[in-house]
Inverse folding.
């Protein structure tokens, strides 16, 4: 069996649960049996494309969520990580400037 190195808490992770739903969140604690996740978000399709939405629609976004293992867990790609950090940060980041010729 191959084992991978555990990530250092806190970190941003992608999770896929048994029902097939996929979401992203900040892992603030991890035990042998569960993850504690802050600000879990999922992707939803809108008329403007895909956007983040709360994973638990009626839950308190400031409350952590406990997710029992086993689930599929991996790290996000750079683009998704940047979008997640932008969506959950209280600091508004300026858009990257470009030169138009």
């Amino acid at each position: 069996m191959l084992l991978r190195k555990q990530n250092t808490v806190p970190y941003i992770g992608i999770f896929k649960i048994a029902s097939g739903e996929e979401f992203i969140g900040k892992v603030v604690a991890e035990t042998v049996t569960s993850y504690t996740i802050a600000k879990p978000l999922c992707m939803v399709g809108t008329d403007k494309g895909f956007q983040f939405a709360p994973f638990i629609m009626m839950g308190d976004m400031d409350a952590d969520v406990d997710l029992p293992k086993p689930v599929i867990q991996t790290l996000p790609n750079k683009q998704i990580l940047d979008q997640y950090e932008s969506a959950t940060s209280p600091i508004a980041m300026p858009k990257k400037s470009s030169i138009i010729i």
In short: The mean pLDDT is 86. Strands lie at 11-16, 22-30, 34-46, 49-54, 65-68, 72-74. DSSP finds one helix and six strands in the chain.
